[in-house]
Each structure stands twice: as structure tokens, then as C-alpha cells.
Amino acid sequence: MRAVVQRVKWASVDAEGERTGEIAQGFMVLLGVMEGDTPQDTEYIVKKIAGLRIFEDEQDKMNLSVGDVGGSILLVSQFTLAGDARHGNRPSFSSAARPEIAEPICEEVAKALRDKGLRVETGRFRTHMEVRLLNDGPVTILLDSRREF
What we know:
Low-confidence stretches: none
Distance between the termini: 12 Å
Strand content: 35-45%
Order of helices and strands: EEEHEEEHEE
Structural class: alpha/beta
Oligomer: single chain
Mean pLDDT: 97
CATH topology: D-tyrosyl-trna(Tyr) Deacylase, Chain: A
CATH class: Alpha Beta
Shape: globular
CATH architecture: 3-Layer(bba) Sandwich
Number of strands: 8
Number of domains: 1
């Protein structure tokens, strides 16, 4: 499982012309579910997202989590995170989980983050989405449950 976590001042997502999620300060998380992901991958990603300390404390040191600052999470599925462009110019998405497998896993990630007391908004699975955000910093962190990067 892969995630791109961006610290944002605000973010929103529209699916098919309808606003499905909007947050103020927090994390914009793009989530890619990979073929073969397990509950351990979900647990790893949830723990990392909830625990990432990338907000500044009173000494301007990145030492606070999204929960510490009362922030929210906008979680958007993105199968293209499984893209492999090492061979040629057209990425292969063969390592992405099939939609019927990926969708419930994305829902489980959202639920697990909510269970940690975080406010979570989402996009809409298998639709064309438009994501807007104001990256704060900019701060962007890449997570991979298989630790490939």
C-alpha cells in the first residue's frame, strides 16, 4: 500500500461535479492499494498517517501529529500510485489491486483513522475526481507499507 501525505492548509475533492470532501488544516492523503495488500499493510499505513509528526510545535520543530493540531484528513483513492514507468513511457498499473478489492480496503483505512479520533473526508471510488489543495510548507511524505522507498 502506498500513500502520498501532504500537509495542507485546506483541501477539497469533487467527484462528478459534486463536493464529496473538504477539510481545513490537516493531511491530503492519496492512497494506492496494491495487489496482495494485507491487513498488516492497512495497519502500517494507518499507524504512520495518524502518527506522522510533520506539524511545527512552539519551537518551530516538526513534532506534532495531525491529531495534536486538531487537523483532519482528506483521503482519496489513487490507483495510479501503483504505476510503474520504468519500462517505456506508458505506465503499467498491473500491480494495482482490482477495484473490488481496493475499495473495501480504502474504506477500512478511513474507518481505522476515524477510530483513532480523526475527522476523515473522502473522495468517491471509481470516479473522475478533481482535487484542490494548498500545500503547507510544502511538506510531502511518501509512505509504502512494503518499504520499497
